[in-house]
Design a protein that fits this description.
Largest interface: A-B, 29 and 37 residues
CATH architecture of chain B: 3-Layer(aba) Sandwich
Number of helices of chain A: 12
CATH class of chain B: Alpha Beta
Helix content of chain B: 25-40%
Number of strands of chain A: 23
Largest sheet of chain B: 6 strands, mixed
Number of strands of chain B: 12
Strand content of chain A: 25-35%
Structural class of chain B: alpha/beta
Radius of gyration of chain A: 22 Å
Distance between the termini of chain B: 29 Å
Distance between the termini of chain A: 27 Å
Radius of gyration of chain B: 18 Å
Bound molecules: adenosine-5'-diphosphate, magnesium ion
CATH topology of chain B: Rossmann fold
Shape of chain A: globular
Oligomer: heterodimer
Helix content of chain A: 10-25%
Chain lengths: 498, 250
C-alpha cells in the first residue's frame, strides 16, 4: 500500500518533460546497409558468426516472408511501412571485448543509470512492503542481460546461474554454444511461417535472450532483460527462447524504454516459451516505448509475437504485461495448453494516452485434458487513444474438462478515447466451461473530486484511482517491477485529464 | 478575522443561477447549521467552497482566513484546512482505506511544507481514532468505502476529519441514510472534534441531527439565499412550522 504513495511521490519528482526517457546516447554504431534482401540476411548472420544451418533457417524465413502481406485485421491505423527504408542491423561498435561491467562503455552505463535500471546486484525497492510471506525484496537478486540496441553488452550473475545449471545468454551466443538446444526448440512454438512480423523476425532477428532451465531446477534468481532501441530508423528484432525442462521453474522479466525521436520505429519481436512436464514459466513485461509526441507523431510500432507452449503435463505459463508505451501495440501473448492439466494465465494492463493505438489480448488454446486458463485484462484509455482487447479462447475436441475465466475491464479517461472488447470463444466439446466478464467504465469525476478534496492533485488522484483499478494485475508482477510499473502508469497518464 | 467569509456569492450551474447572492460568516470555534428544503442550494454552497468543478462563480467572494479561496486549487484548499464530508462518499476499488488515508494525509502535509508522518505514528493515530469511532481494523484494509454500509461510510468521513485535523469542516447531510445508533456514533465523533480552533458548518434538511450536534448559529436557506439566521432555537422553530414560511421571503 505505501507503493501507491511511492507512485505519487515519484510522479511529483518528475518534471513537466512528459517523456523523460527521451534522450539519446551518443555511441558509434555499425549498421547493415539499408533495406532488406538476401544479402542483408547474410550480413546479419555473418556478423553473428552463425553456423550454416542458422543462415539457411533465416533465408527460408526471408523467402517465405516475401510471399506474405501485412495483416490488417487489428484495430490500428498507420502509414504503410517501407520495409526497404529501414536498417535491419545496428550494433554498438565493440571497442574491445568486455569481461566485467567496468569495461562497458560508460555512455551505455549512464543511459541505464538515467533509466534507474539496476545493472548490479542491488537493493532496489526502498520503502515498499513485501507481500506477506515473501522474502525481503531488497535481498532478492536480479540478473540483467542487458540488450543495448541489437547486441547484448553485459551479462551478470553468470557464475551463479552456471552453478545451478541454468543457461542464460544472448541467443546469438546460444546458437554457437548450444546449437542442439536451439535447433531442438527454435521455431517450434512460433513457426517461421507463423505471421508476417514473426516471419520477418525469423529472417533478420539480431539478438535476444536464451534461457534453459534443466530438469528439477528452480532458477535461483529473477532473470531480467532490458531492451532499448537507440538507433534512428533501425528495425529492432529481438528473439527470445525460454525452455523450462521437466519440473523446473523460472521467472523472467523484460522491460524497456526508448528515446524520443521523430520517425516511427518498427519493433517486431518474437518470444517463444516451452514448459515441459511440471514446469512453470512466469514471464513479465513492463513496456514503455516512446508513444509519439503530443500531435501523435513518431513513436514505436510494436508488432510482437509472444507464445508459450505448455508442452508437458501439469505445466504452467503465466504472462503478465504492463503496456504503457508505443504508438502502436499489436501483441497477443498466448498459451498453447497441450499437456494434460496444464494452465495458462494472462494478466494485462494496457494503457493508451495521446494518439496511441493498442490492440492487445491473448489466445488460450486448450488442447489437453483438464486444462485451465485465466485472463485478467485491464485496459485504460485516455486522450485520443484507442484501446482494444482481443481475446481468443478455444477448446479442441480432445480438451475435455477445459476451463477458462476471462475478465476484461476497461476504464476511460475523458471522452475522446475509445475502449473495445473483442472476445472470440470456441468450444468444440461440451465439457468445456468458459466464463467471460467484461466491464467498461469512465473514470468518475466524483471519485476524482473526492480524492482532490482530501488533498491530492488531479494527477495524483488519477494515478491513485488507476492504480486501484489495475491492482489485481499489479499484484502478479514480481516485486522488483511493481514499483516501476506503478511509476510508469502514473507517468503515462500525465496530462490525461483537465 | 473570521475563518470563513462568503460575501454576496452568485453561482451558476449550466447557465442557471443557483446561488443568488449568499452571505455567510463563520468564526473559529463556531458550529453553524445550514437548514433548508431540498434544492435550496446547500450542497452547491459546500461544493463551491471546496472547489468542485462545474460551478461558475459570477459574483461575490469567498475568503478563508482573509485569503481568496476561489483563487486556490481544490487540493490546496484541502491542505489549508477545508474539509468537506460528502453526503454520498464515493467508492474507490482497489485502493485500501489505509493507503488512501496515508496518501492524502502526506499530500496535505507536503503541501504545507511539513514532513511525512512516520509510519508508526500514522498507524498509532489511525488506530486511536478508528477505535473511538467503532471502526474495525479490517475495514481499513478494504477498498475505500467499497461494500461499506451507509453508517460505515459516514464514520469513514469522520475518521478522515479526525485524521486530517482541518480548521473548517463542512458536513453535508451527514444524517442522511443513518439510523439513530449510527447517527449517534457519527455525531459523537464530530462532537469530539469541536474545538476553539475549528469551525463546523453542518448542512441538514432535518432538525434531528441538531439534537446531536448542537449548533451555535442556525441559518435558513431558501432558493439560493440565506433568509434567516438565529440561535439553536431557530431549528426547533423550523421543526414546528416547516420551511413554507420562508419560501415567500426568498
Ligand atoms: N450539476 C447540476 N446541474 C444542474 N443543476 C444542478 C446541479 N447541481 C445542482 N443543481 C440544481 O441546483 C439547485 C440546488 O441544488 P443543491 O445545491 O443540490 O440543493 P440542496 O443541497 O439544498 O438540496 C437544484 O435546483 C438543483 O437541481
Ligand atoms: Mg444537498
Amino acid at each position: 500500500m505505501p507503493a501507491v504513495q511511492e507512485t505519487v511521490e515519484r510522479v511529483k519528482r518528475i518534471d513537466v518533460d512528459q517523456y523523460r526517457y527521451g534522450f539519446e546516447t551518443l555511441i558509434d554504431s555499425e549498421k547493415a546497409p539499408k533495406g532488406l534482401s538476401e544479402e542483408t540476411v547474410e550480413f546479419i548472420s555473418q556478423k553473428k558468426n552463425e553456423p550454416a544451418w542458422m543462415l539457411q533457417w533465416r533465408l527460408e524465413a526471408y523467402r517465405r516472408w516475401l510471399t506474405m502481406t501485412e495483416p490488417t485485421w487489428a484495430r490500428v491505423d498507420y502509414p504503410k511501412i517501407d520495409f526497404q527504408d529501414l536498417y535491419y542491423y545496428a550494433a554498438p561498435k565493440p571497442k574491445k571485448t568486455v569481461s566485467s561491467l567496468d569495461e562497458i562503455d560508460p555512455e551505455i552505463l549512464k543511459t541505464y543509470e538515467k533509466l534507474g535500471i539496476p545493472l548490479r546486484e542491488v537493493a532496489m525497492l526502498e520503502g515498499v512492503e513485501p507481500k506477506v510471506g515473501e522474502e525481503d525484496p531488497a535481498r532478492r537478486k536480479i540478473a540483467v542481460d542487458a540488450v543495448f540496441d541489437s547486441v547484448s553488452v553485459a551479462t551478470t550473475f553468470k557464475a551463479e546461474l552456471k552453478k545451478a545449471g541454468v543457461i542464460f545468454m544472448p541467443i546469438s551466443e546460444a546458437i554457437r554454444e548450444h546449437p542442439e538446444l536451439v535447433q531442438k526448440y527454435l521455431g517450434t512454438v512460433v513457426p517461421t511461417s507463423d505471421n508476417f512480423y514473426a516471419t520477418l523476425n525469423s529472417a533478420v532477428f539480431s539478438d535476444g535472450s536464451f534461457v534453459y532451465v534443466p530438469p528439477g531446477v528452480r532458477c535461483p534468481m529473477e532473470l531480467s532483460t532490458y531492451f532499448r532501441i537507440n538507433e534512428r530508423n533501425t528495425g529492432q528484432f529481438e528473439r527470445t527462447l525460454i525452455i523450462a525442462d521437466k519440473g523446473s521453474y523460472v521467472s523472467y522479466l523484460e522491460g524497456c524504454t526508448a528515446p524520443q525521436r521523430d520517425e516511427n520505429q518498427l519493433h517486431a519481436a518474437v518470444v517463444e516459451l516451452v514448459a515441459l512436464d511440471d514446469a512453470e514459466i512466469k514471464y513479465s513485461t513492463v513496456q514503455n516505448w516512446y508513444p509519439g509526441n503530443s500531435e501523435g507523431k513518431g513513436g514505436i510500432y510494436n508488432f510482437v509475437t509472444k507464445r508459450g507452449d505448455c508442452r508437458g503435463a501439469n505445466s504452467k505459463i503465466s504472462w503478465t504485461q504492463v503496456e504503457t508505451g508505443s504508438a502502436i501495440t499489436w501483441k497477443y501473448p498466448s498459451c498453447i495448453l497441450r499437456g494434460d492439466n496444464s494452465r495458462g494465465e494472462f494478466y494485462s494492463i494496457a494503457i493508451s494516452n495521446g494518439f496511441q493505438q493498442v490492440d492487445s489480448g491473448t489466445k488460450m488454446i486448450h488442447l489437453g485434458k483438464n486444462t485451465s486458463s485465466r485472463i485478467i485484462s485491464k485496459g485504460i484509455a485516455a486522450g485520443k487513444s484507442q484501446n482494444t482487447y482481443r481475446g481468443l479462447v478455444t477448446a479442441h475436441r480432445k480438451a475435455t474438462g477445459a476451463r477458462n475465466f476471462t475478465a476484461c475491464d476497461s476504464l476511460l479517461i475523458g471522452d475522446k478515447c475509445g475502449a473495445h472488447t473483442v472476445p472470440y470463444i470456441e468450444a468444440k466439446n461440451s465439457s468445456a466451461t468458459f466464463e467471460h466478464e467484461a466491464t467498461t467504465s469512465k473514470i468518475s469525476e466524483d471519485v476524482l473530486f473526492y480524492c482532490i478534496q482530501r488533498g491530492l492533485s488531479q494527477e495524483e488522484a488519477v494515478g491513485l484511482v488507476v492504480n486501484g483499478f489495475v491492482k489485481d494485475v499489479l499484484q502478479q508482477l514480481p516485486m522488483e517491477f511493481a514499483v516501476e510499473a506503478q511509476k510508469l502508469i502514473s507517468i503515462s497518464l500525465e496530462g490525461s485529464v483537465g | 478575522m473570521p475563518l470563513l467569509e462568503v460575501k454576496d456569492l452568485k453561482v451558476r450551474v449550466e447557465e442557471r443561477e443557483i446561488l443568488h447572492g449568499l452571505t455567510l460568516t463563520v468564526n473559529e470555534g463556531e458550529v453553524h447549521a445550514i437548514m433548508g428544503p431540498n434544492g435550496s442550494g446547500k450542497s452547491t454552497l459546500s461544493h463551491v467552497i471546496a472547489g468542485k468543478p462545474g460551478y461558475e462563480v459570477t459574483d461575490g467572494q469567498i475568503l478563508f482566513r482573509g485569503e481568496d479561496l476561489l483563487e486556490m486549487d481544490p487540493h490546496e484548499r484541502a491542505a489549508k484546512g477545508v474539509f468537506l464530508a460528502f453526503q454520498y462518499p464515493v467508492e474507490i476499488p482497489g485502493v485500501t482505506t489505509m493507503n488512501f488515508l496515508r496518501t492524502a494525509l502526506n499530500a496535505q502535509r507536503k503541501a504545507r511544507g511539513e514532513s511525512e508522518l512516520m509510519v508508526p505514528d500514522f498507524l498509532k493515530k489511525v488506530r486511536e481514532v478508528s477505535k473511538s469511532l467503532n471502526i474495525p481494523q479490517d475495514m481499513l484494509k478494504r477498498g475505500v468505502n467499497v461494500g461499506f454500509s451507509g453508517g460505515e461510510k459516514k464514520r469513514n468521513e469522520v475518521l478522515q476529519m479526525a485524521l486530517f485535523e482541518p480548521s473548517l469542516c463542512i458536513l453535508d447531510e451527514m444524517d442522511s441514510g443513518l439510523d439513530i445508533d449510527a447517527l449517534r456514533i457519527a455525531a459523537d465523533g464530530v462532537n469530539a472534534l469541536r474545538s476553539p480552533k475549528r469551525a463546523m458548518v453542518v448542512i441538514t434538511h432535518y432538525q434531528r441531527l441538531l439534537n446531536y450536534i448542537v449548533p451555535d448559529v442556525v441559518h435558513v436557506m431558501s432558493k439560493g439565499r440565506v433568509v434567516k439566521s438565529g440561535g439553536k432555537e431557530l431549528a426547533l422553530e423550523l421543526e414546528a412550522s416547516g420551511y413554507a414560511q420562508f419560501e415567500d421571503a426568498a
